[in-house]
Amino acid sequence: DCTSAILPLALHGNLQNNPFRSVCWRVLLNVLPSSSVDWVTALQSSRSNYQFLQHKFHTDQMRKDLSLDPAINNPLSQEHDSPWNQHFQDGEMRKMIKQDVVRTFPEVDFFQTQLVRETLVNILFVYARCHPEIGYRQGMHELLAPLYFVVKSDCDTYDDIMEGLEDNLGDEAQPVKEELTRTVHGDIFSAKFCEADTFSLFEALMEAVGPWFISNKSVHTIGVGYKGQPWSRPQDQTTGNKLVDNLNYIQDELLRRHDPDLFSRLEKLEIFPQIYGIRWL
User: What is the rounded CA–CA span in Å between residue 220 and residue 207?
Assistant: First the structure.
C-alpha cells in the first residue's frame, strides 16, 4: 500500500523535488491504485478511455458521413443532431479556452510553447465536452497547468536518467539501469501519454473542486431584482458560485484583516479576487 507512505510526504511538502511526484499525486487522487502491481493495467485503461473520448468528440468523421440526412449534415443546419452545428460550437469553445490558456503563467517559459498550449486546450476541451454540467469555466487552466508541468517533467526526468545510464559505460551503471527497469515499468513515464495521463489526473481533481465552478443561478438572472448599493463591485452581486464566494472571502475578510494596505490598494485599482486568487485555493 503506497498511500500510507506517500501521504505524510505530501502533507509536509516533501514531494517537491521527487521525480515520482506525478505518480504520487495520481495515487492520492485514486487515479492509480495503492498497489503498484496494478499501475500499468490502470494506466492502459485510462489512456484508452482518453483516446476514445478524443475520437468521440471529433466531428470531422461525422461530417464526412454520407449516410446522414443532407438536410441535417450541412453547414447551414441548426438541428441539434447536426455534426456541423456541433462543429461550430466546438470551435467557439476551443477559442474561448485558448484565450485563457495563452495567458497561463506568462513568467514560466514552459507554458509559452505552441505544443504545450495545444495540449492544455485539448485536455480542457475534452473535459468540458465530457462534463457538460460543468463545461469550461475561466480559471480551470490554472488548475490544469501545474498538473501537466509535473507529469511532463517527471517523464523528461525519467528519460534523461535512462539515457544517461545507457551512455555510461562504467561497471556501476548497468546494475543501476537493471534495477530501475525492474522497479519502474517504462510505461509509467511514457512521454507520448503525458496528455492522457494529465487528463485523468485533472478529471480526478475536478471531482473535488468541480462544484466550485457551478453556479446555482442562471447568468441571465444575475442582477435581476438586485438590491445592492449603487456603484457596488461586480463580485458583490451574489452569483451562487462557490468559487467566487471563496475568493471574495479571501480578499474581503482574510486579506483585509492581515494586510489592510494591500487590500486597500487592490480595491483602489479595482483588482478583483477572481483575477489572481484561484491559485490560492
Answer: 26
User: What are 241's strand-pairing partners?
Assistant: 215
**Is the separation of the CB atoms in 114 and 102 below 8 Å?**
no
Structure letter (DSSP) for residue 112: G
DSSP assigned state of 5: H
Give the residue from 101, 83, 93, 187 showing the smallest Cα distance to 136.
93
> pTM for this structure?
0.75
* Other C-beta atoms lying within 10 Å of the C-beta of residue 74: 15
Residue 182's contacts (CB-CB under 8 Å, 6 or more residues apart) are none
> Which residue matches cell numbers 475536478?
206
Helix (H, G, I), strand (E, B) or coil at 72: coil
pLDDT of residue 224: 37
Give the pLDDT score at 76: 61
Which residue ranges in the chain fall short of pLDDT 70? 59-84, 169-171, 215-241, 274-275, 279-281
Query: Taking Cα atoms as reference points, which of 262, 261, 234, 229 lies closest to residue 248?
Result: 234
